[in-house]
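Worked example 2:
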Amino acid sequence: MLGHRQPLGNLNQEVWDLVVIGGGITGAGILLESARLGKKVLLLEQQDFAWGTSSRSSKMVHGGLRYIAQGDITLTKHSLTERERLLTELPHMVVRFPYIFPIRQGSFPGRLAMEAVLTVYDKLAGISDHNWIPRDKLLAKYPDLNATGLKGGMRYTDALVDDVRLVLRVLHEAVLEGGTANHYSEVKSIAKSASGFTLRVEDKISGEVLDINAAQVVNATGAWADLLSADIAKVRPQRGSHIFILEDKLPVQDCLTVMHPDDGRPVFIYPWKGQTCIGTTDLDHREAINLEPHCTAAEIDYLLKVANQQFAAASITRADIISTIAGVRPIIASGKGSDPSKERRDHLVWTAKNGVVSVSGGKLTTFRLIALDVLSALGWLDSKALKNAQTNTKLRCFNHRIEDPDYLNAPLVKVATGTALLSQVTWILQNEMVQHLDDLMLRRLRAGNLLVDGGREVLAQIKPLCLEHLAWDEAHWQAEVTRYQEIIRRSYAVL
């Protein structure tokens, strides 16, 4: 278990086999798979765990239908195999869920094209799980759905997850396997040394700056990878934004995949933790990478337009939005200047001249496979061992049982209230390295995304627990509330 955060001064006396930089899903997966090999491995994250892309995804564990259309059958197969693995091993966290793709007269793709793609999709997953919904039955289920040209819908399944809870679950597993993880630890520089590498690291809690030594280093910082790779830039940062609205305003029981009237891109409308989520956008992110991203006014307009085009009677406006969320995807640039939505979503592992191994790109679903490719690049897995680890469906990713609170990890259950909320907060404060109020509210609980006004209503309830378990005094609490409210205003509110 993660437990409590250690000061960096407790960690710099070791010579680590590996330091992993980056505490998103990719870094967490590398920590887990390295520790499982018996390596002495340390993960360092400059912000909170999953602060970046891994808390701002579409919360889907899926194979990716569009990858089939792009001809990337291998990526789809790998993704679906990992999806089924996660569904089996973490059924309380990764939940199989129905998706519906409405088919309209004269629009692409049509019924036959979707039937063909989904037949391949199911075959690759080893299941048979799609069917046609006639027009009358689809409208009976969603009477407010735009009926113009509607012929029916194709139903299939993928899975939903709370992406942060998945990252934390991987980190818990990694620590139980012998790994060490520390957040708010910013790597300022990497230099070659006699024993491998020396990393200059700033403890962002204490302000202390010290050196950590490692035989090998992996740069798994996602959208930040080019800043540390000491190589030619390879990442094309792309922003994807979502909006959350009250479930009562647009109740859905499936993940509806609808085509945007402006550009023909698919947008998802789906339930998530008691509210309705609409997303995502797909734009080149041109702001400074170290600034927390936000959903722009234009992106809000874009998402409201498709929702109202599909459900005109709902008349959704900005006033109905609880919060927004924006993430920067680390897409490996093709160099072709493609439409952002047409760039491939596979990952890349490369080694710079200084010997630092970098990895970026990829999908939430395939974090284990990405980690295995990194271990191969480090020379820790030969080709035979790599292939076995990639393809052996009997190998488990999660071998330890964690007694966490009921429904904390469930992607379809509302933010807890009353004694259940207090039980969850107590467990989190004892086990998950909370340093700031936003760590708790925005990531571990999600109350900041899913409750009105950033969850202001629960602050008074959780205050005594924060004071008790984090040893905060009144002044510290007030400073954290001020910090949290500013983060909500700047990066999660409606602009």
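The two ends are 38 Å apart (CA to CA). The first strand starts at residue 15 and ends at 21.
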